[in-house]
Amino acid sequence: MTSRVLILGGSGRIGSSVAADLVAYTEADVTIAGRNPTTGERVSQNLGSRVKFLTLNLADQAGLTAAIASTDLVIHCAGPFHYRDARVLKTCTAAGINYVDVSDHPSFTRKAMEYAADAEQAGVTAIVNTGIFPGISNSMVREDVEQLDEAEHIHLSYVVAGSGGAGVTVMRTTFLGLQRPFQAWMDGEWKTVKPYSDRETIEFPAPYGRTGVYWFDMPETFTLPGTFPVKTVITKFGTVPDFYNYLTWTVARWWHPWMLRQTPVIEFLSQVSHLMTDVTDRVSGIGVAIRSEVTGKKEGKPARCCSTLVHETPRSRQATALAASPNCYCLAS
Ligand SMILES: NC(=O)c1ccc[n+]([C@@H]2O[C@H](COP(=O)([O-])OP(=O)(O)OC[C@H]3O[C@@H](n4cnc5c(N)ncnc54)[C@H](OP(=O)(O)O)[C@@H]3O)[C@@H](O)[C@H]2O)c1
Q1: 141 C-alpha vs ligand 1 centroid, how far in Å?
Q2: What is the mean pLDDT of the chain?
Q3: Which of 6, 103, 122, 129 is least crowded, fewest Cβ atoms below 10 Å from its Cβ?
Q4: CA 189 / ligand 1 centre spacing (Å)
């Protein structure tokens, strides 16, 4: 049977990549959806005859319900998820349609997880946070935790080179993450942490090497302590070139929180940053790296497990991403 897949935000950078993979590796008929028909039609034509475009605004509940009713799987890529409620998941659950999203904002993850029991009762498979981080990052941590008899501390860090290969929405997600302090699990209790504070230098695999990372509010900041009985979970994020770290730190440190809560300010910062990465991507390259380090005990002795992943787009082939698979090693410490 040919499956029908609806990709909300399918005309965007992430959604269109998901559509391209579905065309390459499955026989599914794909519908990509978004508000702008000019962009949507252009993207669907580039993806081939198995991909159709549907003009759809998530705010149009009747249109959303109809689109979900005529598909077998919904893949929600229409961020920024900070601005989203869980209506897509709710509608999928009511219609009995399986659901996947690439959400990356803690507020959205919390809202979506409220529907876990409903989805289970309806027999719907609903998977949230399935991107690279969160997503692959969670699997890397789990792999490290499972190597140990007792996990105590999780340190998860990410670096993005240039635009990271994502669209302007990811810039929005970054600046939205600076809006307010958040809670992090440290030494067995929740503590308030300022975004983009407490710079640490982490050794990532080549080509990134030693890179500065800062506290960042991610879904993993609360989903990992909810999953593993550890004492501490640290989630830190940084950028290459380092210049962007200093700019982001300056905004987080010196701009009044009220300003950062204004949508036009977030939009201005996101658009300017995206234009800047259009230029600097040519020098810095485009890529993402993740490093998970879990410390604890194995056979009664202190031990440390570390996983790394690099997903890089070479400068000479910026349109083609290299496939990446995590590399994991464990050491007695
Ligand atoms: N978990 C992870 O590892 C990870 C990694 C990368 C990105 N992400 C997340 O994935 C999301 C998409 O990123 P991107 O780089 O693909 O962004 P993008 O290129 O800006 O694409 C956003 C897409 O959503 C659509 N959209 C926006 N608002 C909509 C609305 N109200 N109704 C219907 N469609 C709407 C846009 O089309 P129209 O403007 O035409 O409506 C577009 O197709 C972001 O939230 C980002 O943070 C997650």
Answers
A1: 26
A2: 90
A3: 122
A4: 34
Closest Cα to atom 47 of ligand 1: 170
Q: Is the CB of 166 under 6 A from ligand 1?
A: yes
For the CA of 168, the nearest atom of ligand 1:
20
Distance from the alpha carbon of residue 77 to the mean position of ligand 1, in angstroms: 5
Question: Ligand 1 centroid to 305 CA: how many Å?
Answer: 34
Does ligand 1 have an atom closer than 6 angstroms to the CB of 220? Answer: no
Q: What pLDDT digit, counting tens, does each position of 78-127 carry?
A: 998 988 999 999 999 999 999 999 999 999 999 999 999 999 999 999 99
Q: Is the C-beta atom of 102 inside 6 A of ligand 1?
A: yes
The ligand 1 atom at the shortest distance from the C-alpha of residue 78 is 24
Q: Helices (DSSP H) in the chain: which residue ranges?
A: 13-25, 37-47, 61-69, 87-95, 106-113, 116-122, 136-147, 168-176, 220-227, 242-254, 257-260, 263-284
Lowest mean pLDDT among 52-66, 111-125, 177-191, 315-329: 315-329
- The amino acid sitting at 36 is N
**177 near 270, Cβ under 8 Å?**
no
Q: What is the pLDDT of residue 47?
A: 97
Q: What is the DSSP string of 61-107?
A: HHHHHHHHHT-SEEEE----GGG--SHHHHHHHHHT-EEEE----HH
Question: Of the candidates 75, 78, 77, 25, which has an alpha carbon nearest to the alpha carbon of residue 50?
Answer: 25
